[in-house]
Amino acid sequence: MADIKVEARENSQKALTMTIQASVIEDAYKSRLAKYAKEMTFKGFRKGKTPVSIVERQIGDYVREEVTYDLINDNFESEVKKLEFADQPLAYAKPVIENEEALKPFVKDKDITATIVYDVFPAVKLGQYKGLSFDVLNAEVKDEDISKEIESLREQNADILTKDGAAADKDIVTVDYCELDENGAEIESTRRNDFTFTLGSSYNQYKIDEDLKGMKAGDSKTITKTYGEDESDSSLRGRTVTLSVKMTKVKERVLPEVDDDFAQDIKEEYKTVQDLKDSIRKDLEGQLDNYSKNEKYLKLFTALEESSEFVIPQSMKDFAIENEMRSYLRQIGRTNEDIEKLIQANDPMAMYLRSMLSQRAEEGLRQQVIMNAIQQEHVVTVSDEELEKAYADNKIDTLDEDTKKRAQEEIRDSLEFEKIPDYLIENNTFNKTGDVLSFSDYLDAYYKLMEEADQKKAGNAGKSEEETKTE
To answer: Measured between alpha carbons, how far is 458 from 471 in angstroms, rounded to an integer?
Structure first.
């Protein structure tokens, strides 16, 4: 057995120093030589008949190095299992032998003292997480929110009918168009036939919505437009363009009346318009409640991140980013084989994905680390009823006793962890401020808050911890 010592290092790392006695190395060395003498074939000898002295002469240095590293690795793996959780290496981190070259050459009758440095789960000095007060947005589902939802349903269920009259806003038009040169001749390369879009949407290259209003099917028109230097389409920027346009079709959306038949068309269980409105209100109130909780979490965890002290090791960040990449790539339908190739790649696509997902991954990690630290203070409890239900759901009674015991501990930890966000909301104060917003106005304000928080975090990502805390 090796003599060991564990010490803390910066950046959530620990260092385990072990001394392996020369006699232990020598015994392993002789045993490995004898093994190779039996298993390997050397020139001039039949397999298994090579004298150990010949084996040692030819590959002795290699064997001594091999068994020394094996002993370091085996002792490290054996010893860290005995340590407290705070001293154990992260499963996905790669331990490194410190000043490895200084240990060499490995020679007979020499003790080996090796220091292995590895990442550990961050130790956290928690800031205050109870009794805090935050201002949050004030909102409720208003009648105007219900009306907007109903208008959206009317749009989705509209009939599309041919229109004989002039084209107006929100009509669906089909046009043929072509640019004209300075002499009025058509520029064939710019011709586009049967182009269909909704007036007012600006979903057309030349932004000619207003110019087409009032035209009927069969009408033709020449349009001249000048585009500024700030035009988003670089091919039009700073140009004056003359277009020949022919309106070929005009269609209009005929919206259904809001009556009981309309409600039943939306869902059979709705018997009246009021049933539809009640259902919409209930759904929006549920959404508002979820967004409101997320707003509170944002305020809470932003404050906790600023007041708590911890360092997330790089291996932990890398692992989280890879998991985010896997999740994202699965959502867009990539195969497992493609996913693993992309994760290992260093091409522009992989680098872009890492960059895009890194902030979200690291934000999730920071919250996880803080919640884990709060959990260790045993401030939440899980009832016996909750545990028994979870045990039954996971069918742990079919497991052997040791596995069952570990499963019970994991389930309890998981249930406790899940309760932390609600515990934080219950033990802090949230003051609704400002005018009462409608749900749609609340969403605009909510997303603005999220964007500002992301921009602040992105700005702080390039700063040192000391600079961030000073601010």
So the answer is: 15
Each residue of 130-186: pLDDT tens digit? 999 999 999 999 999 999 999 999 999 999 999 999 999 999 999 999 999 999 999
The verdict on whether omega for the bond into residue 122 sits within 30 degrees of 0, i.e. cis, is no
Structure tokens at 230: 């700030």
Question: Residues 6 or more apart from 104 whose CB is under 8 A from it?
Answer: 65
pLDDT tens-digit map of 342-361 = 888 888 888 888 888 888 89
Spatial CB neighbours of 279, under 8 Å, sequence gap ≥ 6:
267, 270
Q: What is the pLDDT of residue 461?
A: 58
Phi then psi for residue 47, to 5 deg, are: -55, 130
Region 101-125 average pLDDT: 93
> Is the same domain home to 222 and 163?
yes
- Note the pLDDT tens digit of each residue in 257-291: 999 999 999 999 999 999 999 999 999 999 999 99
Q: How many CB atoms lie within 10 A of CB 88?
A: 16
Q: Has residue 469 got a pLDDT over 90? A: no
Q: How remote is the C-alpha of 81 from its chain's centroid?
A: 31
Tens-place pLDDT, residues 288-325: 999 999 999 999 999 999 999 999 999 999 999 999 99
CATH number at residue 90: 3.30.70.1050
| Shared-domain flag, residues 175 and 297 | no
Question: Are 19 and 114 in a shared domain?
Answer: yes
Quote the domain boundaries for residue 442.
273-311+378-470
Specify whether 222 is located in the same domain as 108. Answer: no
Which has the closest alpha carbon to 20: 115, 84, 93? Answer: 115
Tell me the residue type at 217.
A
- How many C-alpha atoms does 243 have within 13 Å on its Cβ side? 24
Mean pLDDT of the chain: 92
Q: Which amino acid is at 94?
A: K
Q: How many domains are contained in the chain?
A: 3
The one-letter amino acid code at 216 reads K
- Do 219 and 280 lie in a common domain? no
Which residue, among 253, 255, 250, 228, has the nearest Cα to 239 in the 3D structure? 228
Residues 281 and 429 in one domain: yes
Burial of 152 per CB tally in 10 Å (0-12, 13-18, 19+): exposed
222-226, 279-283, 299-303, 460-464 — which is least confidently predicted? 460-464
Structure tokens at 78: 């054996």
Total length of the chain: 471
* Helices marked H in 187-272: 209-212, 260-266
Same domain, 230 and 301: no
Query: pLDDT-based confidence at 228, cuts 50/70/90?
Result: very high
170 and 50 within one domain: no
Amino acid at 131: G
